[in-house]
Amino acid sequence: MLSGMKVLELTFFYPAYCCEILAELGADVIKIEPPQGDPMRYRKRVYASFNKNKKILKLNLKEDEGRRKFLKIAKNVDVIVESFTPGVVKRLGIDYERVKEVNPSIIYCSISGFGQDHELKELPTHDINLVAFSGIAKISGGDPKIQISDFSSALYAVISILSAYIRKIKSGEGCYIDISMLDSAFASIPLYTSEILNNSEMDDFERNPGYKIYKVKDGEISIGILNENHFWKALCSALSLKYSELELEKRKERFEEISQEIQRKLMKFSTKDVEKIFREGRIPYGIVKSVREAKDVVRDLIGIVKYNGEEFKVVGFPAFFSNYKPKRSGKIEEATFDI
User: Fold this and answer.
1) Which of 32, 165, 186, 215 is most exposed, with minimal Cβ within 10 Å?
2) For residue range 118-174, what is the model confidence (pLDDT) as tens digits?
3) Sign of the CA dihedral running 277, 281, 285, 286
4) pLDDT at 306
5) Over the range 174-193, which residues count as b (16 or more CB within 10 Å of their CB) and which as e?
6) pTM exceeding 0.85
7) β-strand pairing of 330-331 with 302-307
């Protein structure tokens, strides 16, 4: 899919996922690591997942020889992705302006916590800090325990890089891309921002008895009904509820009462019962599963990565193309400078 695209990567931890996607879609990715390696190697399974199909080259960028080798490689690539604290690549002499001198059409993407011009740009940060700053922790009632700013910034970086790459193919023009993890997290909650920033509230997911996780005899299930009266009527019919004529706002006003009644009814059923009843009634539902159980529900996304003499299961890119198969399996190559 991206055969011919050459990417030079300078990322550690989660930002490596950006270039992993590009590699899975066919780009040739060379990852530069310090002599001691990416710190994420301590989590070998995560490292394997985020770096499959890449060539790893160790360079000491604090030394002239390392910088010389880096710029020699940079001269012949399409894209550079880095995730250092703002200002570090300039001090190392490998920033966008320096690389542009040897490669005028380079696409240079920087992923950082706050962005290159934010007042907190030099503050060390992790995802939990950014979901706090972005408003997400308030929405979720605390730490959501999934790395939203990490994940969304990697995806926004991929989208931005591919957009710039299309323009480069057309015009030969490169560019600099500044991706902030904080901005990415904030941009990832458009249902909330579209209401809250316009002096309204978004409580469709908090006080909606039709959008909630409930207990059943042998586990938990979810119901997913918003302002969809046909689904609500189907649920009321399936559970013999007396609320079928209530519109969403009324259902939210009587949230505690209706939720308790739904819970009372559902405790009579097992997960198998719910699946049968809800599928027949075409009611949006889910069964609360562990990650191990979920792998049997998703489509064929599991690949195998070979790393350090071991094999690890990894989840690959989730799109299915008619003319291309993402490289969900692969290996990590330790490379030398003669790549």
Assistant:
1) 215
2) 999 999 999 999 999 999 999 999 999 999 999 999 999 999 999 999 999 999 999
3) positive
4) 92
5) bbbbbbbbbbbbbebbeebe
6) yes
7) parallel
The span from the CA of 8 to the CA of 216, in Å, is 51
Position 337 pLDDT exceeds 80? no
Which tens digit of pLDDT belongs to each residue from 63-114? 999 999 999 999 999 999 999 999 999 999 999 999 999 999 999 999 999 9
What pLDDT score does 335 carry?
82
